[in-house]
Design brief:
Helices cover 39% and strands 15% of the residues. With 370 residues, it is of the alpha/beta class. Helix 6 links the parallel strand 4 and strand 5. Its cofactor is pyridoxal 5'-phosphate.
């Protein structure tokens, strides 16, 4: 992945610096409004990362010790960690082997009376079937981890539209970046107001509003909270990036279509659109065939050929941090973690580059095995 950055972003950041207002301020507010409108939500609350966005969502719902939160193990470890930050227990549900996402049936299998929330991930930008998952949750709040999903759609609407709470990432590996940063989107005005307090130490009035008010204004601190703010420098970059999002998605889908065409003769299964939506191809992963060499060997061979690939989506329960964490059978999760890898996909990739990647992959599978 390479971030899609240019002179426009550099100028916007420089303008923010020259303005003298570099902390959370008017550019953050403008970015919140523009991003929420883009994903079909009423309110956006910018924060320091998607991890802090997830933590705030669960904290807002009152998740705490003794509670369970259903989530996929097949996700970046931040998904499970946000649950642990609240003192709750992650309950890992298996995923669909084609999409890598939770399904209504896998969620229904693990929901219990102690389930306080379901944390569904739109993994790698592939939209999860949130409608089916909400039904399976049986009234339990569903939080969407949309870290990778800006520009993806589900049932003809942007991912995030109609979400109770959705958390977003603007890390450089995402299509839209602010360097670091995140966002919570929701349609609930009261929740949005409380989220804004929670991200800024629980202050009754933000620093920006206090300065804008003029005169002597004394804020109060209404609850114990956090410092999860985004800066105006980051938001300045985000506003420029947001204008480019549709073009970035269109280009990535064209590159993904070319990969599919090149990989078809090899018989490899690659990530694609589910029946209920479209993916932005934030990650282009491929499942190695049964009998292929170990993933680590294939990755090593690709690196030796000058191709920067990486393992596919990780499984939290297989990491040392979650050693011994109880869980039920997760066959699809473990299979995808064992034999999927992510191929390069970015705006500078040419058709010749893609042919080189696919050729190196074919060679890696064949030569490491011999």
């Amino acid at each position: 992945m390479k971030p899609f950055l240019g002179e426009e972003e550099a100028l916007a950041v420089a303008e923010a610096v020259r303005s003298g207002w570099v902390a959370q301020g008017p550019r953050v507010a403008a970015f919140e409004e523009a991003f929420a409108a883009r994903v079909g939500a009423e309110h956006g609350v910018a924060v320091s990362s998607c991890t802090t966005a997830l933590h705030l969502c669960l904290h807002l719902l009152g998740v705490g010790p003794g509670d369970e939160v259903v989530a996929p193990s097949l996700s970046f470890i931040a998904t499970a960690n946000a649950i642990r930050y609240c003192g709750a227990t992650p309950v890992f549900a298996d995923v669909d082997p084609v999409t890598g996402n939770l399904t209504g049936s896998t969620v229904a299998e693990v929901v219990t009376p102690r389930t306080k929330a379901v944390l569904v991930v739109h993994q790698g930008g592939v939209p999860a079937d949130v409608h089916a998952i909400r039904i399976a949750a049986g009234g339990v709040p569903v939080v969407e981890d949309a870290a990778c999903a800006a520009g993806s759609t589900v049932y003809g609407r942007p991912v995030g539209a109609g979400a109770l709470l959705a958390a977003w990432s603007f890390h450089p590996r995402k299509l839209l970046t602010t360097g670091e940063g995140g966002m919570v989107t929701t349609d609930d005005a009261d929740w949005a107001a409380r989220l804004r307090r929670l991200r800024e130490h629980g202050m009754s009035m933000s620093a920006a509003d206090r300065h804008a008010a003029g005169g002597a204004v004394v804020e109060s601190y209404v609850e114990i909270a956090f410092n999860y703010r985004m800066t105006d420098i980051q938001a300045a970059m985000g506003l420029v990036q947001l204008r480019k999002l549709d073009g970035i998605v269109e280009q990535r889908r064209e590159l993904a279509a070319r990969y599919h065409e090149m990989l078809a003769p090899m018989g490899l299964r690659a990530v694609t659109d589910p029946a209920h939506g479209t993916t932005n191809y934030q990650s282009f992963w491929v499942a190695l065939p049964e009998g292929a060499p170990p993933l680590a060997d294939v990755l090593s061979r690709l690196a030796g050929s000058g191709v920067s690939a990486r393992r596919g989506i990780m499984a939290a329960h297989l990491e040392p941090a979650y050693a011994g964490h109880p869980h039920g059978p997760l066959p699809a999760t473990e299979d995808l973690a064992r034999r999927s890898l992510i191929l390069p996909l970015h705006h500078e990739l040419t058709s010749a580059d893609q042919r080189r990647v696919v050729g190196a992959l074919a060679q890696a599978i064949e030569l490491v095995a011999s």
